[in-house]
Amino acid sequence: MKTGFIQDIRFLEHDTGHGHPECSARLSETLKYLETQDWFNSLIQIDAADAELDNILTVHDSSYIRRAEEVCRSGNSHLDSMDVSVCTESFDIALLAAGSSIQLADEVINHKVDNAFALLRPPGHHAEHAMAMGFCLFNNIAVLARYLQNRHGVDKIAIVDWDVHHGNGTQHLFEEDPSVLYISSHQYPFYPGTGHYSETGIGKGNGATLNCPMSMGANDLDYEEVFSQKILPKLDHFKPEFILISAGFDAHQADPLANIDLSTDAFAWMTDRIMEKANQHCDNRIISLLEGGYNLNVLPKCIGKHLKVLSNDNYS
Ligand SMILES: [Zn+2]
């Protein structure tokens, strides 16, 4: 499998302040680890790129975008709430994160790679239409989904979000849209409070949202059951033309921000199960974007498992 990989030193410039869990070391430690892996050189390095404001406007309110720019450039330390720490560079780095996601879309659509992963920050799945939230400024995966639809004519897109937190922003952005299936497994009840199993979409989008709330302490076996009984059958029923992964690694048992009990290997088999569906339904097309994951020793290894499986040849 030809797997594209984006990283950029500028992602480290988004400074969230001393002691913040969503820190630049998440990426630098991961890169340091990946560079020790013999398979890492087989990944196809793709250059990061800035998003155009028009791309961001497909998802976010124009007044929010202006506010985000003003708040960051003026040197404020928080955007919208104490939830989102920013610095003067954060607006530009958020554009770079969203733009890099789009860059991967072009590479996959043009068959330069089969699938791809972006080692980016800030993350995106909590960002709402008109509000920053939960360490997120722009909803990278939503911008990517709209770009695939608008620019490349991809109709049906599935987003699988296995970050331990529910992706409230992503759900809300697509809950009335039957063309984008949003699937989330997440600790519940937990931050941000959304993601009850009864939230299944609204109006025409009813049925295109699948929430799989997981109890505190849920482990690999619990996730395997939810994947085999709910998530994979839903993908079979929907038949996506493209699969996106909101790849958070904070459901790992050693993550400091949550209480789910997944092993490092869980991120390998979850990746493999989704690759099997991408092979069946959409010519292997997967783009995966980093969301959460805050244990600096464990995150690199989880990302390594994910990337190694993405780049294997089982489904070529
Ligand atoms: Zn998370």
Tell me what the structure shows.
The chain is of the alpha/beta class. The chain has a single domain (3-310), classed as Arginase, Chain A, CATH 3.40.800.20. It is built from nine helices and eight strands. Strands 2-1-3-8-7-4-5-6 form an eight-stranded parallel beta sheet, sandwiched between helices. Strand 4 (157-161), helix 6 (168-174) and strand 5 form a beta-alpha-beta unit. The longest helix has 20 residues, at 90-109. The radius of gyration is 18 Å and the shape is globular. The mean pLDDT is 98. The structure holds zinc ion (ZN). The site of zinc ion (ZN) has 7 residues, from loops.
Bound molecules: zinc ion
Number of strands: 8
Oligomer: single chain
Order of helical and strand elements: EHEHHHEHEHEEHEHEH
Physical arrangement of strands within the biggest beta sheet? 2-1-3-8-7-4-5-6
Helix content: 25-40%
Shape: globular
Give the mean pLDDT. 98
Q: How many individual domains?
A: 1
Number of helices: 9
Specify the CATH architecture.
Answer: 3-Layer(aba) Sandwich
The level 1 CATH classification is Alpha Beta
Q: Please give the radius of gyration in angstroms.
A: 18 Å
Percent of residues in β-strands: 5-15%
Structural class: alpha/beta
Largest sheet: 8 strands, parallel
CATH topology: Arginase, Chain A
CATH H-level homologous superfamily name:
Histone deacetylase domain
Q: Distance between the terminal alpha carbons, to the nearest Å? A: 6 Å
